[in-house]
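Summary for the funding panel

The consortium committed to producing paired sequence-structure records for every protein in the target list. Below we show the first two records in order, beginning with the earlier of the two.
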Amino acid sequence: MKNILTGIVALIVGAFTLIMATVMGLFISVAALLTTPFIKRKLAYAHTETRFNRAHMHTAHQGSRHVIDGEYEDVSHR
């Protein structure tokens, strides 16, 4: 009798776990489908902004030369 009750409880807990996992997976997949366009738009904006900043930095530093202070080692004879 004890084994039968334990089996029934295990079946109920297993069914509850399976149903909750299905519901959570459904909500997560719907949320992913809804947020995909927003994430793609933000990534595209960040990519264009990064390209603009790199191009701007390249043209801004092209005319001026900067010297980094520190030790100098001639490696042309190696």
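The next record, for a separate protein in the list, is shown here:
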Amino acid sequence: MPTPPLTDAQLAEALAGLPGWTVKDGELTATYRAERGRIPAFYADVATAEDKADHHARITILYGTITFALNTHDAGGALTAKDTKMATRVTQLATEHGASVAT
């Protein structure tokens, strides 16, 4: 059974607890900044979390930034609880790796 899309109210509630995350072009996105040498370990831990959850972000690494973009493919590209759960985990890992929201 596909994961149901979040309602606008559910998404707004989730975003309130996800500093730095926004919806852009139908994806839940955030960019973090960290020392370049810390980015690979951060990415590796995110990849492990993604594999465990069977839910993967589109990730772009550029210099000292790493950007995540999430949506749920089996829900037609909609935003679902899978996305907000993964965003929460990415946020936790960012803190653990000394990354901060890029402004």
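Regarding this second record: The CA atoms of residues 77 and 103 lie 26 Å apart. The beta strands are 22-24, 27-33, 58-62, 65-70, 100-101.
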